[in-house]
């Protein structure tokens, strides 16, 4: 049953390393379970083959001279075909793995891994799964979590930098525990103006009240950033 399912699978291999390309083709041919196996030694030819044969699976080398694998995967995605892409690489670089998966790869296989891993990768992506060897899975998810945290930090920093100088002054005093009346006195502005600035702060930081605004500011190091503005070298 499994072999019949694979019999209909069309595959395109793109790799500038001819020996490796032929080795993978021979491996898949010996399996005797794939309908079409086309090869290309450069990205441009590979893209043309994808357009011509509309394959189910494309194996892409991540390091080619004319275009890198990330660019090729992006081009494949723009074709809007139902193609599953597996990245092939000699490197177990966490950043490369993450970027390959982010642009659309459904699997990542090291060239140094056993041939059985490649067969498993093809079968998994055909079945709608994501394939990452166990040796790479933990590193991928650790890197993913780190990237998400960094993106969230950048987004949070943008919210804080959207504050005007006066709004920063108001928020700075709020984080020090001063009430609205005290803020009004220290900044020589009316209580109504203080409340206007505070409402603007709520909107820009996407919080609902003073407590949330203060906690947000402290959690993202606003007080330290404010102090650094007045440090002279």
Instruction: Please state how the strands of the largest beta sheet are arranged side by side.
Output: 2-1-3-4-5
CATH topology of the largest domain: Rossmann fold
Poorly predicted runs of 5 or more residues: 1-5
Specify the number of helices. Answer: 12
Oligomer: single chain
Percent helix among the residues?
55-70%
Q: Report the end-to-end length measured between terminal Cα atoms.
A: 74 Å
CATH architecture of the largest domain: 3-Layer(aba) Sandwich
What's the alpha carbon Rg, rounded to whole Å? 27 Å
How would you sum up the major sheet?
5 strands, parallel
Approximate shape: elongated
CATH level 4 superfamily of the largest domain: Response regulator
Q: What number is the mean pLDDT?
A: 84
The fraction of residues assigned to DSSP E strands is 5-15%
Break the fold down into its secondary structure elements and pairings.
Elements (H helix, E strand, L loop, with lengths): L1 H6 L2 E5 L3 H14 L4 E5 L2 H11 L3 E5 L7 H10 L5 E6 L4 H10 L3 E4 L4 H12 L7 H28 L3 H11 L4 H8 L3 H15 L4 H10 L2 H7 L5
Parallel strand pairs: 1-2, 1-3, 3-4, 4-5
Tell me briefly what this model is.
Helix content is 61%, strand content 11%. With 233 residues, it is α/β, with parallel strands linked by helices.
Polypeptide structure, described:
The protein has two domains: 138 residues, Rossmann fold; 76 residues, Arc Repressor Mutant, subunit A, CATH 1.10.10. Helix content is 61%, strand content 11%. The chain is built from twelve helices and five strands. It has a five-stranded parallel sheet, sandwiched between helices. 25% of the residues are buried. The N terminus is likely disordered.
């Amino acid at each position: 049953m499994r072999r019949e399912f694979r019999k209909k699978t069309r595959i395109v291999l793109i790799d500038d390393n001819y020996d490796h390309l032929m080795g993978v083709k021979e491996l898949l041919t010996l399996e005797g379970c794939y309908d079409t196996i086309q090869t290309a030694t450069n990205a441009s030819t590979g893209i043309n083959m994808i357009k011509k044969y509309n394959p189910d699976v494309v194996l892409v080398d991540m390091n080619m001279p004319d275009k890198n694998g990330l660019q090729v995967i992006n081009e494949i995605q723009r074709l809007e075909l139902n193609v599953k892409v597996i990245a092939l690489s000699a490197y177990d670089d966490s950043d490369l793995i993450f970027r390959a998966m982010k642009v659309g790869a459904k699997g990542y296989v090291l060239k140094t891994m056993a041939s059985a891993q490649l067969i498993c990768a093809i079968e998994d992506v055909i079945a709608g799964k994501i394939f990452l060897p166990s040796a790479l899975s933990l590193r991928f998810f650790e890197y993913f979590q780190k990237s998400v945290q960094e993106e969230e930090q950048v987004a949070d920093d943008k919210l804080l930098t959207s504050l005007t100088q006066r709004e920063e002054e108001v928020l700075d005093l709020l984080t020090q525990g001063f009430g609205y009346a005290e803020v009004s006195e220290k900044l020589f502005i009316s209580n109504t103006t203080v409340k206007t600035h505070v409402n603007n702060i709520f909107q820009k930081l996407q919080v609902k009240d003073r407590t949330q605004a203060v906690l947000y500011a402290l959690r993202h190091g606003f007080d330290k950033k404010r102090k650094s503005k007045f440090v002279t070298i």
